[in-house]
Write a structure and sequence with these properties.
single chain; about 325 residues; alpha+beta; elongated
């Protein structure tokens, strides 16, 4: 513990510093009524006030000495900080060794989540600076260094078969995520590619999002953020997996995988040749609506095909459209 005491006429300042705290005590013996100057006339009041902003303000002698004492205190604290940094420099016994990849982290970093909707504490592991492994959570190692082999390029850029394309009820065409994985396995081989998280999973009130990096043959290929909606806290684990698949689909755009599905002309041509719009009826609520589906597909539960018997019933009143 270190202590400094400054005494002047009418006041004293004591600064006490310990290893964990800093205490400052200021005391004065001046009576309260003498702290303020009493103005007896209006002329004296007008003359005592500064006429312009750049006029030098009046300063009491004891205030000047107080500032000097505080400057001395700041110098003392700076000396103490330099001494502490010198004591913790490399080569001294007080330096702690850096944590290794398998060492336990402090308990303050542990996040306790009683409710999944409050967030997920799954930050990527930060590798040690001395480790030879690539930290894919921060690194861009191998990005655009060279092209892949001719065989890999042919597998990645191969045209998509119309039989593999699916149609959502709202008319959006897509390629199932498992077929993206099959294309990557064909191009690089199983185990030669992977997704590395680049940040913590963010859980909002209705969606889950996380950033991933696609790594192939030890090289960073692309970085994309996936997202997935959910309807209840119990569905968050499934939404996290869907978020990963969505990020994979977006990363594959940079490799040219299924690039036709991002071409508006291809989409319009596919809808005209392989999709249809039909009226369906919900088997429980009896509500009717229009949905899109493949021409070679069938209506699935809970809907059934609805065939209006007359033009007046072609668009029911309880329809959504």
């Amino acid at each position: 513990m270190a202590s400094l005491l400054f005494q002047k006429a009418g006041w004293s300042l004591q600064i006490t510093r310990t290893s964990r705290s800093l205490a400052v005590t200021f005391s004065t013996a001046l009576p309260r009524r003498n702290r303020h100057r009493t103005i007896t006339s209006a002329s004296e009041a007008s003359s005592s006030l500064p006429s312009r902003r750049h006029d030098t303000p009046r300063t009491r002698p004891e205030h000047s000495s107080l500032r000097e004492d505080f400057q001395s205190t700041k110098v003392y604290r700076a000396q103490q900080a330099r001494a502490a940094s010198t004591a913790s420099a490399p080569g001294t016994s007080t330096q702690r060794p850096p944590p290794g990849p398998n060492s336990l982290q402090p308990t303050d970093d542990i996040v306790h989540n009683d409710d999944l909707a409050a967030g997920l504490g799954d930050k990527p592991i930060i590798l040690d600076e001395s480790s030879r492994q690539v930290d894919w959570a921060r690194s861009f190692h191998g990005l655009s260094t060279e092209a892949f082999s001719k065989e890999s390029a042919q597998a990645l850029l191969a045209p998509i078969e119309p039989e593999d394309i699916e149609v959502k009820p709202d008319g959006i065409v897509y390629l199932p995520e498992i077929k993206y994985r099959r294309i990557l396995n064909k191009a690089f081989g199983p185990g030669a590619w992977g997704l590395a998280p680049r940040g913590e999973t963010i859980v909002t009130g209705k969606a889950v999002t996380r950033e991933y990096a696609l790594v192939a043959l030890g090289r960073l290929v692309s970085v994309a953020r996936g997202e997935q909606d959910y309807f209840s806290p119990e569905g968050i684990p499934t939404a996290v997996e869907g978020c990963k698949s969505n990020a994979l689909m977006r990363c594959c755009k940079d490799l040219g995988v299924a690039s036709e599905l991002w071409d508006p002309r291809f989409i319009r041509k596919f809808i005209a040749n392989h999709a249809k719009e039909v009226w369906v009826e919900h088997q429980q609520t009896q509500k009717r609506r229009k949905i899109w589906m493949r021409k070679d597909d069938q209506v699935r539960y809970p809907f059934k095909l609805y065939s209006p018997t007359s033009p007046a019933s072609a668009k029911p009143s309880n329809s959504k459209y």
